[in-house]
Design a protein that fits this description.
Helix content is 75%, strand content 0%. The chain has 6 helices and no strands. Helix 1 packs antiparallel against helix 5 and helix 2 runs parallel beside helix 5.
Length: 161
């Protein structure tokens, strides 16, 4: 299976660099927010919401990085296609950000959350696109190995008749 129609090493490398920068920005900004809210005497519920959103955003970016690292390994020949298909999946229904918690964030932190969501959506689209290339169609619903075996059996039966 050739992944290049929808995905190639340059795309993966560009997204990987973008995700690394975003991960660092998210970590720095939420760390500053955490220390600011601790020293400002903000209510506990607001601090918990902030912590949850920080964790959700960081995790979202880390899932993107893991997906991209798996694809980098595939393109470098370190993972087989089978390994990539088994272990290189991105979670389809990752929890969305809490809009109530986002309303209390400063604009720059809100922007970072939005960027992490956009990156995740892009990775999901790429994942769906290249996985769709290898999925069997209606006439091949039982997989290509079984289909080929059936074709060989049918050919043998025809020759014997």
């Amino acid at each position: 299976m050739d992944l290049t129609p929808t995905l190639n090493p340059r795309i993966v490398e560009a997204l990987y660099a973008e995700a690394l920068v975003l991960a660092d920005e998210v970590r720095q900004r939420f760390e500053r927010l955490r220390s600011d809210t601790a020293s400002a005497g903000i209510e506990d519920i607001v601090r918990v919401q902030l912590s949850c959103e920080a964790l959700r955003t960081t995790t979202r970016v880390m899932h993107c990085l893991a997906w991209l690292l798996n694809h980098r390994a595939y393109f470098a020949g370190e993972l087989s296609e089978l390994q990539l298909r088994r272990h290189g999946r991105i979670i389809a229904n990752f929890p969305a950000s809490d809009r109530g918690a986002l309303a209390g964030l400063p604009n720059d932190a809100h922007r970072l959350v939005h960027e992490s969501e956009r990156l995740y959506e892009r990775i999901q689209r790429l994942d769906r696109a290249w996985r769709g290339l290898a999925q069997p169609g209606p006439s091949d619903s039982d997989g290509s190995a079984v289909r080929r075996l059936r074709e060989r059996i049918a050919a043998s039966v025809q020759r014997a008749s």
